[in-house]
Amino acid sequence: MSLTKEVSRNNYYAFLWHAGISAIALSFVDVDTVIPSMLINAGGTSIHVGILTAILIGGTRLSQLFFAPYINSKSNKKGLLITGIYLRVVALAGMAAIFFFFDSFSNAVIIFLIFLLMTGFSLGGAFATISYTDILGKSILESLRKSFFSIRQILMSSVTLISAWVAGYILKLFDYPVNYIYVFLIAALALLIASLGFWKIKEVKIAPPKLKKSIIASIIDELKSNQQLTYYLLLTNTLGLGYSILPFTLLLGKEQGDLSNEFVSNLLLVKMSGLILAGILIYFYSKRIKYATMLKVTFVLGVLFPVFAWLFKSHVEAYYLTFFLGGLYGSLFLVSSGGILLEISNSSNRSIYAGISGAGNILPTLIPLVAGVIIAQFGFQAFFITILIITLSSLYFIYKLNCLK
Q1: Distance of CA 185 to CAs 34, 89, 110, 189, 218, Å?
Q2: Can you give the pTM of this predicted structure?
Q3: Positive/negative CA dihedral, 275, 281, 284, 289
Q4: Chain centroid, CA 57 distance in Å
């Protein structure tokens, strides 16, 4: 099947269907608010928050490298994509079961089961992400990609804003742990319905390349032959650390004496407002704004919101501002980094590049683990300063990346 306008249009809306419905699940299991507050309520410490953040952010990325060679060898990746999504559905349903039988387990057992199921959720995401990136790159016309990313972000953020209000209402309506039973059940159901969009995809099949070398040797060759890939990895490692900040900001909020369900739900709404605003701006300026400009704005935001988080930690308003800036940052970083990855790769190596991109994000994986120790030993100030210094270094790689679109 060749990529015609009709095929591209069909896939365009199929991907948007998934994006819109899955946004409900994402708001109900938001990794910056709902998930860490759930763990903290279950008795989790800064070390536990660091481990869980590493699993959800870094675990998905690192495991992509192991899946990439297998997925890249398949000409039909739609089935693999759907399989990865269903693994996530099962993990979310399992989380609901944990809280249904909450009184039967000790806090230690509950935390262990949370780690176990969230690891399954993370692995399912890794399996799906590589297939998603590959199919998206060859199934939507290049001229429509930037508008797709911006519309997808607006759609997801708008749906998430509404569902975030619903999630917040449920968190406040029911006491812990009953509220999390409903939260995870709704998330699982939403993700299941969202997967129907992938069944509608008309996949453009391209004969997979045969790897003549090991995956490690292939990665080394790609890094040597494509300097832009090297700069891209260094950029995502440094500028991408913003994802590690918000869960620990929530932990800081607890130390300041406020981690109520209402506070968490309000932070979720504020974050989604930032995501929506950034998505709208990207959509209207998608033909005029380049990825390089998006990265520069992302850099400014990545510097600002950890500064606000620390300097004004005793003021409730500062948490709202931090999460709003974090929403702007997250939207811009996702659109720009996703678009650049498609730009520097092609149909024959996109799966491998997706795997390299995921596994190459070493710092965003390690920082949450190290952060728990840093906070426990030296306090939050040392943590925020560490993040800020690394983020500042990303400016060099922004200028080294040659983003033409």
Answers
A1: 14, 9, 17, 6, 41
A2: 0.65
A3: negative
A4: 7
Binned at pLDDT 50, 70 and 90, residue 188 comes out as: very high
What does the alpha-carbon distance between residue 291 and residue 269 come to, in Å, rounded to a whole number?
27
The Cα 16–Cα 240 span in angstroms is 25
Q: What CA–CA distance (Å, rounded) separates 396 from 405?
A: 19
Residue with tokens 């974090």: 326
Q: What is the pLDDT of residues 155-168, one digit of tens each?
A: 877 787 788 778 87
Instruction: Confirm if 34 and 183 have CB atoms less than 8 A apart.
Output: yes
Domains parsed from the chain with CATH numbers? 5-400 (1.20.1250.20)
- Paired tokens of 323: 């999460």
> Quick one: average pLDDT of 336-359?
69
Place of tokens 């500064």: 307
Q: Which residue has the tokens 């520097």?
A: 344
List phi, psi (to 5°) of 140. Answer: -130, 135
Handedness of CA 308, 311, 313, 315 (dihedral sign): negative
CA distances from 83 to 78, 113, 205, 208, 268 (A): 9, 22, 18, 20, 29
Highest mean predicted confidence (pLDDT) among 136-145, 248-257, 393-402:
393-402
Residue 359 has pLDDT above 60, yes or no: no
DSSP characters over 313-356:
TT-HHHHHHHHHHHHHHHHHHHHHHHHHHHHH--TTTHHHHHHH
Share of the chain above pLDDT 70, in %: 80
d(CA 387, CA 364): 10
